[in-house]
Amino acid sequence: MPITPREELLALQKKLYRQNKRLIEESILINEPDFVRYETAYNRVLKKYKSASTISEMLAAVKTADIIYVGDYHTCNQSQRSFLRILKEITPRIKNYIIGLELLHKRHQAILEQFLKGKLSEESFLKKVGLKKHWVFDLWENFKPLFDFAKYHDIPLFAIDAAPKGASLKERDRATAKLVAHLAKTHPDKKIFVFIGDLHIAPSHLPLEVNRELKKWKISKKELILYQNSEPIYWHLAKRGLEDKTEAVKINENSFCRMHTPPVVCQRSYLNWLEHEEGEIDYADAKHSFVDLVERISHFLKIDVGEEKENVEVFTCGDLSFLNRIQSSRRFSKEEIKIIKQQIIASQSYYIPKLRFVYLSNISLNHAAEEAAHFIKHICSGEEKPRDPFDAFYANVLHEALGFFGSKIINHKRKCFHEKDFQKLIRYFQSISTQAERHLEFETALLVAQCKKMEKNGEALSSMDVFHNKPDLFFMVTHALGYMLGDRLYYALLEGVVTKSEIRHLFYDPWKGFGKPFQVYWTVLTKIRDVIIPKRM
Length: 537
Hints:
Elements: H1 5-27, H2 35-45, E1 51-53, H3 55-64, E2 67-72, H4 77-90, E3 97-105, H5 109-116, H6 122-129, H7 131-134, H8 140-153, E4 157-161, H9 169-186, E5 191-197, H10 206-216, E6 223-228, H11 231-239, E7 248-252, E8 255-258, H12 263-274, H13 286-301, E9 313-316, H14 322-328, H15 334-345, E10 350-352, E11 357-360, H16 365-381, H17 389-410, H18 419-431, H19 439-456, H20 471-494, H21 500-508, H22 516-528
Helix pairs in contact: 1-12, 1-14, 4-8, 5-6, 9-10, 13-16, 13-17, 16-17, 17-20, 17-22, 18-19, 19-20
């Protein structure tokens, strides 16, 4: 029986998941004591579930519980939004609750209370608690809505990190448990929400330690555990075509797992944080976020895209319907579909003009803004027609330049590799035995350096033989050259070297005629080549 597009995309997602997992594991330089055992205990709980459930059933369980442990995936903004949605649902009926937050240490409780009472500005609060120094995940913007909600509804917040620096996971659980038990003793009529990293809420971790502390005071409390986005459960649901239809699953009578974000999206949020990507769009409403970016970029450039923006469809890496929609359109050749699959595996976001589809391999603001700029370019100048390889090369460089430029309008801090960075990369690769999986990166650096050297002599990369049967190399090199140009174009605009009118013309120009893309590239490059790029870490 032939494999369906959905099954094929699921297989691609699993491959991408394994790649991301390897990158995440490689990024961890210091392993905490007993981490593997700690994680194994957590994973054991979430391998199976009792039944599919609903948010309504989960909220009904919240109403009857005394202590509700809510797991958090710190870098994924959907995690914090999911918790906030729970609070918004219950608050009209239940207001007798307090919240314990892991991201603040107990020594900062007085400062937290001053902030909640409006006696401290946000800037002063963050400075006094030293969030970036105290908490490795310095993602205040993800958590700020929780604080705003608590201030508005006068809900008490408590800092529940109580362990000394360098404490093990178990030691952190014990220290936090003492605080949670103390809150239960001093606020006997209040529900307690404990919002803490997902690994901590396995029954044998924090809940066990809290129960031990409560027994010392002969206090009995009914607990509820709300996990999130179990990977094995997601793959099980996806295999059965239920991942989009299942809001939550019931693990047992005392625990549920919220299923709001696919594993690859959660992983990507961590990698974005690791790579200092600035911000994320709303995964739950990707189209609205995308259209907002289109409006912001087009307004800045004074480009009217009219109602066209409403016709775009936005898919994320967690959407298993994407490949099926591509194939069922019957507008793509086998070779084109092969290239699309390669881009999925390479975690590349892209805009598909034929269908006005946007595929976001990454929900970072940078990726979404870049594709928004590509969409605007398509609306302004029409769909790309087949070109001679030489023209296709420089046309793609220009497309990548406008995409990066558009993303800089949204996030002026975005950075990219420039010539000196590629030279450094070449020296690095020449000093080591290059691994097979990094050969493409090395080959790209060499070709980019070659292109820049030729440009200094007024020459173009005229021979395209090097890209024969290597579409990934073609895209990597044009991507790199385009980013450099787009970055410089942004600073040229700030310095008055180019005008908005000139940039707007680049969006409307279809670059028709043999040699026109290189002519446009060379004209722009010559005009802005002396613009200085600010030094950044």
